[in-house]
Write a structure and sequence with these properties.
The chain has 322 residues and is an alpha+beta fold. The chain has helices at 15-37, 59-75, 135-138, 207-218, 236-246, 267-280, 311-320, and strands at residues 46-50, 56-58, 78-83, 90-91, 98-106, 117-125, 147-153, 157-162, 168-173, 178-183, 194-196, 229-230, 249-252, 265-266, 284-286, 303-304, 306-309. It has two domains: 4-183, Fructose-1,6-Bisphosphatase, Chain A, domain 1 (2-Layer Sandwich); 194-321, 3-Layer(aba) Sandwich (D-Maltodextrin-Binding Protein, domain 2). The structure holds 1,6-di-O-phosphono-alpha-D-fructofuranose.
């Protein structure tokens, strides 16, 4: 049931943090509006630029990045930001208490086909006693996050948010321009028969993942003794949303397709915030060998292998990696 509980009114959460999340949501509402205008807003297609990771930037990647960056930096609430679309961190206010990492538009290859995309964010506090704005400040493990979430721009626009006490789901009411609370506590089923992986990379995976997926594909005829279904949205935000709604296992594992790039997903902009949400909803998130939230980052654009979702299924997958 829909309830008018703007993010602003969450109990037991620092009002400054809530205010920051509301600031961020103002930019996300604007992105939502432009996305839903689609072709009419002239936002489809690519630019000639590449981001720091060597990926072609879509027009809407740049617009979304600029919208979020501007609103955060002008708010006076953040010491610095780190974005998937920026080469380096960008300094904000000297008095800012927070550090925000974000992927302004995850799944950008879906923009031009009118399919799922989203904004993912992770918020940490500036370590005590530190002045100025440095990349080192950001190099805290995921366990240091004070809030994380994503905004999914789908048929409706939804915000999944955790401040460390469960995951709440809000839906944007376009008639009043507010996110309304539509689910008090998201919970991932422990069991599942659904998996998400880009199967075209199969021959490049480690033997552990090859064996695990082979057993899922064997279904009732194999050791798992049950049939599995597969889904792949090509936007982590869409795949993780499905996992939060109805369970499942999502993985972008280690592969040797390009020896210089064994992992695809970014730790600070994708893996950490999604892991925080998944764990808060009762799921598990790992690289296969360690808990993602306990990784000590070496640099802001670092990438990692990701295996997350329904507790029992992820643990089964991890047992292949031992
Ligand atoms: P982009 O945001 O650069 O499009 O990448 C999306 C993503 O990092 C993640 O959201 C998807 O799960 C994954 O890439 C899809 O990768 P494939 O292109 O291998 O399907």
């Amino acid at each position: 049931m829909q309830r008018f509980v703007p993010v602003l009114r969450q109990d037991n959460v620092d009002p400054q943090l809530i205010s920051l999340i509301n600031t961020l949501m103002a930019a996300c509402k604007e992105i939502s509006f432009r996305l839903h205008q689609g072709e009419l807003a002239g936002i489809l297609g690519s630019t000639l630029d590449e981001n720091i990771q060597g990926e072609t930037q879509k027009k809407l990647d740049i617009i979304s990045n600029q919208l979020i960056k501007d609103i955060l930096l002008e708010s006076g609430q953040v010491r610095a930001i780190a974005s998937e679309e920026e080469d380096t961190i960008v300094a904000g206010s000297e008095n800012g208490r927070y550090l925000v990492c974000f992927d302004p538009l995850d799944g950008s290859s879906n923009i031009d086909i009118n399919s799922l995309v989203g904004t993912i964010f992770s918020i940490m506090e500036v370590p005590e006693g530190q002045t100025g704005a440095t990349e080192e400040m950001f190099l805290q493990p995921g366990t240091a996050q004070v809030a994380a979430g994503y905004v999914l721009y789908g048929a409706s626009t939804q915000l999944a948010l955790t401040t460390g006490d469960g995951v709440r789901l809000f839906t944007l009411d376009n008639t009043i321009g507010e996110f309304l609370l539509t689910q008090e506590r998201m919970s991932i089923t422990q069991e599942t028969a659904e998996f998400a992986i880009n199967m075209s990379n199969q021959r490049f995976w480690e033997p552990a993942m090859q064996d695990y997926i082979a057993d899922l594909l064997a279904g009732e005829t194999g050791s798992r003794d049950k049939n599995f279904n597969m889904r792949w949205i090509a936007a982590m935000v869409g795949d993780v949303h499905r996992v939060l709604c109805r369970g499942g296992i999502f993985t972008y594992p280690t592969d040797n397709k390009n020896p210089n790039k064994p992992y695809k997903l970014r730790l600070m902009y994708e893996a950490n915030p999604m892991s925080f949400l998944v764990e808060q909803a009762g799921g598990v998130s790992s690289t296969g060998y360690e808990r993602i939230m306990e990784i000590n980052p070496q640099e802001i654009h670092q990438r990692v292998a990701v295996i997350l979702g329904s507790k029992n299924e992820v643990n089964t997958c991890l047992s292949y990696h031992k």
